[in-house]
Amino acid sequence: MCGIVGYIGNNNIKKQLLDGLKELEYRGYDSAGFSILKDGEIYSYKAVGKITNLAQKAKDFEIDGEALGIAHTRWATHGKPTEINAHPHFAEFSAVVHNGIIENYQSIKQKLQKEGIEFLSQTDTETIVKLFEYHLKNDSFEAFKQTINELHGAYAILLLTKKEPDTMFFAKMGSPLLIAKNDDEIFFASSDAPVIGKAKEVIYLEDGDYGYIKDKKIHLFRDNKEINLSWTTLPQNKEFAKKEGFRFFMEKEIYEQSSVLQETLMGRIDENGIYFEEIDKDFFEGIRDITICACGTSYHAGMVGSYLIQRNARIKTNVEIGSEFRYKNPILNKDTLFIVISQSGETADTLEALKMAKNAGLKTLAICNVDNSSIVRLANKTLLTRAGIEKGVASTKAFATQVMVLWLLANYLGNKNENNIIMQVSKVCKVNDKLHEKIKRLSKRYLHGHGFFFIGRDVFYPLALEGALKLKEISYLHAEGYPAGEMKHGPIALADPELYTIALLSKNLLFEKTKSNIEELSSRDSTILTISSQEIETTDDFIKINSTNHYMLEFYEMMVITQLLAMEISIRLGNDVDMPRNLAKSVTVE
Fold first, then answer.
1. d(Cα 287, Cα 24) in Å, to the nearest integer?
2. Is 429 a residue of the active site?
């Protein structure tokens, strides 16, 4: 998602900042900007689109000698991708860049507005710098500490102020930030990539760390006490740094799901239920039923959403495949809410279906990962998933966040409060190293059969479809997802020892019925891997998940396991996990 760069030194600061931003392009962004503090003045440039646009805008700006600079690539969460919403953000005499989401920014903004403080942007980030100047009486560092103490959510922050022309302030909570150095330069970045080849040593900040750099001396505070600096040597492989130590981007993105889901939730969930700043409740007035339209992985997320919405909100919900919907001469009623789901926001079939719904006068809602994409621009309302860029073609964290947004919507429409369950999802998606090792070992047993069945019931049926799709996409092995109860209606004819069955067995939904379906396959000698909290005798292999009291916690834990299993099988087969053959990340043609 967003990227941060900071620089203190005298080696062409504009180039240092722009070069650093270019190294963060892999994270995804829709705008960029920088601010440089030199001799008590702040010079700033911002641009929408690529970093080349920013470089062109600042082409005539030159500055020599010692200076401090902060820079940022923004992936829109709060507010459209516009120059005003791009970072850095400003108050009267200060500038800030920020990664993450400030959960309580609305209450902070309202407090400051009552004090007569005006805001220009739609972002949560602007509240940081305005709050800093609000607290600034005499001591800038005290004002900075007061500011971060009021922030709830995730943040990596760099702040400059004319009041301290030789100082840069920093803080980290839940969003990555590091400090690197060589003999006479200091760097900040949100990952290793911008500083490799420029710095020799690095400190990876921990959550709750904050401090300042004054006259090139670093003051780092942890638990409100200044601590001694502990440097480590930087790795030197840029591509390795972009993958943050993982073998593939897909692996990195599977591991990221735990933290990304927190970003999906931020500002949308509190003790009273669900809140969407993007949508007023009256938008749903007059809606009698819902149609969800999507393709591929997004279609599977939509299927999960149909179960959740019908169960929690008691609204009839249909799910349509985008490529089929366009040509079936659909009946479109104006009391239907038309929801489209797309990671990229450019999926051609889904976009055309959305146009049909708009032309028929239906209310439309997009669930999407990319602000200002074609689908987002066309839909009446949008709920962003906030998954960040996905480099792996086979979608993982986009699916996880799409399902989460649909679950939030189901609770919102049904006035349900499952927040105590929802808040546990991030924890169950955190990859356990021992579990991953077990999946690596198991994967060698599932390479040479004649195909796979993934089976499940209720929400675990679309998860079975998604598990089969992941395996097909990256391993090139034949796999099918089925409702477990449909085995005896034909597919069980294929059962033999070389047919591998991945069984998703929920303790909380239709346990006995699904267990019976597994036993049907076992009695026909199918090789079975069961994923469940409840071990059963008639299974060849077993992956144990946590025993919980809600099916969606089981869903998310099983989701991670099926993703890892597909990846490890693909790796054993020697495939390119991130770039599988014949596939594109964004399907912009029919």
1. 43
2. no
